[in-house]
Amino acid sequence: MREMSKEASAPPVTIVDLKRVARDGETHFATIHAQVDKATQKTTKSGKPFLDWLLRDADESLAIKVWDNHPNFSRAEALGSGSFVSVIGHWSAGKYGLESQDWNLRELRTEEVEALLAAEGGFANQQREDYSYLEAQIEALNDPRLRTLAAQFLEKFGERFRRTAAARDYHHARRGGLVEHVAQMMRSANALCDVYTEVNRELVLTGVLFHDCGKLWENCFPEKGFSMPYSEIGELVGHIPMGMEIVNKLWREMEEIHQDDWAVGSPPAGDVRLHLLHLIASHHGEHSFGSPTLPKTPEAQLLHYIDNIDAKMEMFRGGYLKAQPLAAKVFERVRPLPGNLVQPLATFTPLETDPTSPPENASPPATEAPSTTSDSLK
User: Which residues make Cβ contacts (< 8 Å) with residue 151, sequence separation at least 6?
Assistant: First the structure.
């Protein structure tokens, strides 16, 4: 093994930062602190055992294969899901993604675990801004039925909402990822409702808030940890039926409290509830994708496409962090995207401008996540 004693004092870096710098094809020394999300023992074609690990921190995940001839195999074999570990090594892009040939392993000390759990991650500031945006959008709703229902949801389940992922694997699969997903969908919904003015904007916005609310019981991270558990209700029922049940329960509670207020105005409260439930039921767009019904209103169709667009854009963002290069500007396919990734076109820069300097007020590249890169990786 390569001597690491002189470098072992380097501060840990996030998995996002390690993946970002490793895209340059060079080898980088780094330490990561993470929780073992999955520890699966498998067998090679020749019958030799190996461990398939998935590590997670606040923002990202990293797959590591521990072969039976690795010096840390026995130590890793003794650790199970939920363990907190420090992995130190020289990292580079390899056959199985980000790899290290000389990594070393130890369990984190108590104070290191506490520091890791306290770290909010590179998306924390964005998530706070997104949650404030959600609150402002809800407060601005004119329909008292939708406004009261949505406000009660945040009041009752806001803390759980803020630690729920939008998905288990493909997009926004991190603590608070559902907040990011919902807020970005609301921004898209507002933009599209400016174009399609006949659409009921307030219904679409409320549908965006509630479309994945069942995931609060399917994809919620524990208060202390990065390993997303499975739940019996999530497996047996699924987030769409659970979301409809949540809305129905909250609706009955709020209707009883605000019965007189809700009885006034058009459309009738019963119609509002029915159309909101339809948005939740149909947002996957197809029976084969889990929707019990298909979109049958303009609002339902719009919600379905907005959901799909935001999920796909996040898949591209995350895909560029882990896809291995195949050629200049071409990277391997990242599922479930349909084909190999190609480097996106840069924003136009006038010839008289220094090409090494970004244009004033230019947006960051679409492939970049919020940067928290440690100096040890630069």
Answer: 138, 139
Q: CA-to-CA distance for 291 and 373, rounded, in angstroms?
A: 40
294-332 pLDDT, tens per residue? 999 999 999 999 999 999 999 999 888 888 888 999 999
Q: What is the DSSP letter of 174?
A: S
For the entire predicted model, the pTM comes to 0.82
Smallest CA-to-CA distance from 124 within 209, 58, 57 is with 58
Number of domains, the chain: 2
**Domain CATH number, residue 91:** 2.40.50.140
Per-residue b or e along 75-91, where b marks 16 or more CB atoms closer than 10 Å to that residue's CB: ebeebeeebbbbbbbbb
C-alpha 23/C-alpha 57 separation (Å) is 19
Closest CA to 206 of 155, 294, 143: 143
Q: Which of 79, 98, 118 is the last residue of a domain?
A: 118
Q: How many whole angstroms separate alpha carbon 327 and alpha carbon 107?
A: 38
